[in-house]
Every structure is written in C-alpha cells, then in structure tokens.
Design brief:
The complex is a heterotrimer. By secondary structure, chain A is mainly alpha-helical. A two-stranded antiparallel ribbon of chain A has the order 1-2. Chain A has 14 helices and 2 strands, in the order αααββααααααααααα. Chain A starts with 5 loop residues before the first helix and ends with a helix. Chain C is mainly alpha-helical. Classes of the chains: A mainly alpha, B mainly alpha, C mainly alpha.
C-alpha cells in the first residue's frame, strides 16, 4: 500500500474535516437544535421533510442555495463578500489541531492518528485562529451599510475582545497543570495522571465555557444578532449562500469550543475513570466515539442554554466580563499555582484541589436548593389561599 | 531559492520605509497609527531572523516585548484618536495644531 | 529542513525559500496598500493581512511561539480595537479631504538618510547565514525542548525584570487609555 503515505493521509483528513463538518452542522446539529428546542418548548419542531424530519437540513440547504443573493446598493461589495468567508475559514482551520482519537490502523503497517497536526503551540494556535473569526462579524456589519448591522458588528467587537481575556486566562490555569500547549500531550497527560483536568480546574472550566458561549455569540450572549433590538444584527443584509456561511461559521465555532472543552478538561478520547478496575468495560467503546459523545453533550448544552436563558443586557454583559470573569480567572490562576506548589513534583495537590472544588460545588448546589425551597415556603405562606387560584385564572 | 540574512534585512528595511512614509504623508490619524505598527513589525522581523542565525533566543524574547509595546501604543493611540475626534470632530493630523484643548 | 541544518548549509532553501519570497512580496504589497488606501477600513484590512503574513514568516523561521503571539495580539486584539474605533468615528468624518498631506519633500529627503547607512551596512558587513549551533537554539540545560518552552525559560529566568517592567507598562497604558478615553465631566451637560 504505497499510496497510504502520511502526507496523502493528511490530505485525506483535511478533506474529511472540510467536507464532513459542514454536513454535520447542516444535517445533525441544526435538526437536533430545532427538535430539542421544540421538545423543551412543548411543540413538535420540524417533522415533515423525510422520516421524522431527518431531511430538514437538505431542505434548508436547497432553500438557501436557490435564494437570490442580495447585496445592498451602497454596500462595500468586496468586504461584503469577504465577511462570511472570514467567519468560516478560521473555525474550520482550528479543527486541524484537535485530536479526536489515538492512532487507528487502516491496513497492515499503516496506521494514522485521528488528528491532522500535532503542533507544539496547539492551544495558542487555537486561540489565535479562532480570534480571527470576529472579523467576519465586524466586517459583515460594517459592509452592509445598515445601522442595525453596524451596531451588531460593534457590539460583537466589544464582546469578543472582552471575553477573549477570561477565556485565555482560564486556559492559562490549565496550562500550569499540563505544562504543554500541544493538545495531544494534554490528553496524554490526563491519561498518565489518571485525572481529568475538569476536577482541579472546575473554576477554569466554568470560566472557559461561559466565555466560550459569549465568543460564539450564542444565547444568553447573542447580543450581536438580538432579533428584538437589532432586527437580526450583523447578518440583516445577508441572504442565500452568504447567510449560510455565517450560519456555518457560528456552528463550526460552537464545535471548536466544545472540542477544546472536551480535550482540555474532559480527557479527550479517554473513557471516564478509565483507570478504575470496575469501570474497565468502558474501554470497549472506541475512543473516537467517546470523543464524539462528549462533544455532542456540549453542543446539547449550547442548545439547552438557548432555550432556557433570557438574553443579557449589553451593560450587564460587559460588567459580567470585566468585573467578574477576569478577576475570577486571575484568582483561579493563583489558586491552581498554589495547589501545584503544595506538593512539589507530585500531583497530589491537584487531586486535593479537585476534591475541594467538588465539595464547594456540592455545597453551593445544596445551598441554592435550600434557598429556593425556603423562598417557596415563604411565598406560599404569605399568600392567602384564594389569591393563587385567581392569579392562575387571570 | 536560498534565503540569506540579507533578504531578511531588505524585507525589513522596505517594510520600515513604507511605515515611515505612511507616518509622514498620511493625514488620517488612524492610518498614521497603523503605519507605526508596520514599523514595529519590521523590527520584529529582524529580531526573529537574527535570533535563528545566531542561535540565540533572546531575539524572540525581545520581539515578544516589542509586541507588548505595540499593544500599549495602540491602546493609547486609539484613546487619543477618540479624544481628538471629540474635541475637533476630525481625524486630520494637520488640524490638530493648537495646544489648547 | 532539519537535514539541511545538520549539513551546515543556509537555513531557508528550496521550497521554504520560495515561500519566504512569496510572503515577503505579499507583506510589502499589503503594507503599501495600508499606506495607499483612502478608506481606513481597507487600510485596517490590509494591515491585518500583513500581520498574518509576518506571522507566517516567523513560523518559517521556527519562531512558532512569537508567530502565534503575533496573531493573537495583533489580529485578535489590536486590529479589532482599530476597527472598533474606525467605526465609532468614521461615519461622520468628511470624505472630501485629500488623504495625503504635503510632507512628501521631507519624506523623500529622509529616505537617503536611512538608505545610505543601510546599503553601507549591507555591503560591508558579512552576516552569518549558518546557524552556529542549531540545537542550542532550542535547548535548555542541555535538554532539547520545544520553542515555547525554551522562550519561556529565557523570559522568566534571564529577562524576568524586563517582563515585569513590560507588565507595569501595560498597566500604565491601560490607565492612560481609560483617562484619555473618558468623557470629561464638564462635557456631559
């Protein structure tokens, strides 16, 4: 099998990423999003095209491709064209460094790892490349020559610059544990330490994922395209294939954020608690499927957030980013560094930090539940018996 | 094609010259700032090239510092732009010619 | 390229050399476009392209860390701020004023001031084209490690004080930007 050289296989993998990810976005995620949101809002969701609505993605694609591609009369033509391209390419490029599984054997003497490139600046490269995606939105807003688009673009610029900082800082705390920027090495180290970094890095993970949601302009941080305030923000003047590109860019960015969360915090392709003897049957499932399942869970979280959280106001968003997330992520770095210095040369400190975070998390959870129950009891006690019924009728 | 250090020096010199021209001849304050960034980049290219030729990482460390300086310079410059625009309603550097605000 | 280094030949040869030529021409082209464009948004876009290409040159020169930092800081931060400010002020500036001021004479006068020493140095000085010790380039305490690790060893051990000074500088710049950008109280009616 002379043809299966590493270079050739790399090209194949690149092609697969470029071809498969848009297809997954179009057919799986969009359908899942609409059906899950339908379920959560007690309605059906799309169920007409194909069996149980499975071909809805194809119908959407056909609709978008056949639509007229409108460019506003006084728009900057070239920039208007460039913006959706800039929104998609960085997100697809970033997928190149995501390790989706260990080596698999294709034929005798031919095996290939399930990543395109393992570079020693992996995580930094990811942050750098994904930060270019913002230009799609800013330029799209500016080139449309429409004040609502422009406002959407400006909001997006401010939002993405603000939330990149806590995102980077939360990953710095993890880097203290991994001592490597290579994503493959990060997963390997979690395997060797027998510890997913989400346990000592619970706070990091929380900060990372909240900033990740903000970076992808999703609910509850979808201010750049707030329908009720800005028509639909930066993409108001886009239709047809260009709109589809923006759409693809947003969902590809979601996939990237989920992939990084899985790789850095949830052990990549490793099965949960793989080193525990009683759970060793989990190794039967192929590593790639573990990776896929974990990424799928985070995509589900995105959809879940979208259908349950109300949108932030813009000043609240900025206050959250600058006054809470950034100081918290700085404190987090100090906490993690102290935990590492606690037991120099060994990883016990991180394990203890994991227990501490877990205990704190449970404590906060039960306190919140308690407060909720108390408030409910007070409310029921303070209301006379009749008012509830009349309120329900009205 | 074999690239020697002279090629790097020529690239860096031309980039610096273009940035310098931009600073001198443009009216728009924002473009002047951008030209300054070009000049800083030209310096970085030299640092990186010599760092590898001399097998000394100090050049790379210094180019990180230069990038830091560029970030601070851009922040101050853009704040100046906004305050200039508030005071004068223009970005033309030729009209910003009095000391009184 | 690893084999070429071991043989002690020049550092960028063959395809890498042609890549450098391509990047260099594109960098110069975009840089000229930055200075030439009338619309500041176009200037900013060309500048963004130029930064990304310079990052490519850095990576070609095996400075991956600086390349990534270049993209992260310039493309992710500085240019977004530039575009933000351009959009804040651009709409209302007069479009009719000419883009260039009349300092061409000074610029052309200063050109030989820079060019002559540069050509003199280029002609007389013989710079080395061969890395003296390619392994020392990425080794700390005798152990060969990645570029990022090597740079950070140097930065946090030998250059700790400059690093701290740089952080103080950033703090000062931040405070300065806030003070300059803030609306003065008298202005708010």
């Amino acid at each position: 099998m002379k043809i299966l050289t590493p270079t050739f296989l790399t090209y194949v993998k690149v092609l697969l990423i470029v071809a498969v990810v848009p297809a997954i976005v179009g057919f799986v995620i969009v359908l899942a999003e609409r059906r899950i949101m339908g379920f959560m809002q007690v309605r059906l969701g799309p169920n007409r095209v194909g069996p149980k609505g499975t071909l809805q993605g194809l119908a959407d694609l056909l609709k978008l491709v056949t639509k007229e591609d409108v460019t506003p009369a006084r728009a900057e033509k070239f920039v208007h064209f460039l913006a959706p391209v800039l929104a998609v390419i960085p997100a697809l490029t970033a997928l190149a460094v995501i390790p989706m599984g260990p080596s698999i054997r294709l034929a005798r003497h031919v095996s290939t790892p399930l990543w395109v490139a393992d570079i020693n600046i992996g995580l930094l490269f990811l942050l750098a490349i994904t930060s270019i995606g913002v230009y799609g939105i800013i330029l799209g807003g500016w080139a449309s020559n429409n004040k609502y688009s422009m406002l959407g673009g400006l909001r997006s610029a401010a939002q993405l610059v603000s939330y990149e900082v806590p995102m980077g800082l939360s990953l710095v705390a993890v880097l203290l544990m991994t001592r490597s920027l290579s994503l493959v090495e990060i997963v390997m180290r979690q395997d060797r330490m027998q510890l997913w970094f989400v346990f000592p890095g619970l706070l990091s993970f929380f900060l990372y994922f909240v900033s990740g949601v903000a970076e992808t302009n999703r609910n509850p941080f979808d201010l750049p395209e707030a329908e009720s305030e800005l028509v639909s923000g930066f993409n108001t003047e886009y239709s047809g294939v260009k709109f589809a590109f923006f759409f693809l860019g947003e969902y590809a960015a979601m996939i990237i954020i989920s992939c990084v969360a899985v790789t850095v915090f949830f052990g990549g392709w490793l099965p949960p608690f793989g080193h525990v003897k009683a759970l060793s049957f989990l190794h039967i499932v192929p590593p790639f499927l573990w990776f896929l399942a974990k990424v799928g869970f985070f995509i589900f979280c995105y959809i879940w957030f979208r259908s349950t959280f109300p949108r932030y106001r813009f000043d609240q968003l900025m206050a959250l980013g600058w006054k809470w997330m950034i100081p918290l992520s700085l404190v987090n770095i100090v906490i993690v560094a102290l935990a590492i210095l606690w037991t120099p040369g060994r990883t016990d400190g991180l394990v203890r930090l994991g227990w501490l975070f877990g205990a704190l998390f449970l404590l906060m959870f039960f306190l919140a539940k308690l407060r909720q129950a108390l408030a409910r009891r007070d409310r029921l006690a303070s209301e006379p018996a009749g008012t509830r019924q009349s309120a329900l009728k009205a | 094609m074999t690239i020697t250090i002279n090629h790097f020096l020529i690239l860096s010199f031309l980039l610096f010259a273009i940035g310098f021209f931009g600073v001198l001849v443009r009216r728009n304050f924002l473009t002047v700032l951008m030209s300054i960034e070009l000049m800083l980049n030209a310096v970085n290219i030299n640092f990186i090239a010599f760092s590898r030729r001399l097998s000394d990482l100090t050049g790379q460390v210094f180019s990180v510092f230069v990038i830091t300086i560029a970030a601070g310079e851009a922040a101050i410059g853009l704040a100046l732009t906004i305050s200039l625009f508030r005071q004068r309603k223009t970005l033309n550097v030729e009209e910003a010619n009095t000391m009184k605000g | 390229m690893g084999a070429a280094e071991a043989a002690g030949s020049a550092l960028l040869t063959g395809v890498a050399g042609w890549l450098f030529v391509g990047f260099a021409l594109l960098i110069l082209g975009t840089a000229i476009a930055v200075v030439w464009s009338k619309n500041p948004v176009h200037s900013a876009l060309f500048l963004l392209a130029s930064f990304l290409l310079v990052a490519c040159v850095f990576i070609l020169e095996e400075a991956e860390f600086v390349g990534a930092v270049q993209i992260l800081v310039y493309a992710g931060g500085i240019m977004v701020l530039f575009l933000f400010v351009i959009m804040l002020v651009h709409q209302r500036t007069a479009a009719g004023t000419p883009a260039f001021q009349h300092q061409w004479d000074i610029a052309l006068l200063l050109l030989p001031v820079f060019l002559i020493p540069f050509l003199y140095i280029l002609g007389t000085e013989k710079f080395t084209d061969i890395a003296r010790n390619p392994d020392a380039f990425r080794a700390v305490a005798g152990r060969v490690i990645g570029n990022t690790e090597a740079v950070s060893w140097l930065m946090f051990r030998d250059y700790l004080l400059p690093f701290e000074v740089a952080s103080v500088f950033l703090l000062v710049a931040m405070i300065g930007a806030v003070v300059l950008g803030k609306r003065s109280f008298e202005k708010v009616d």
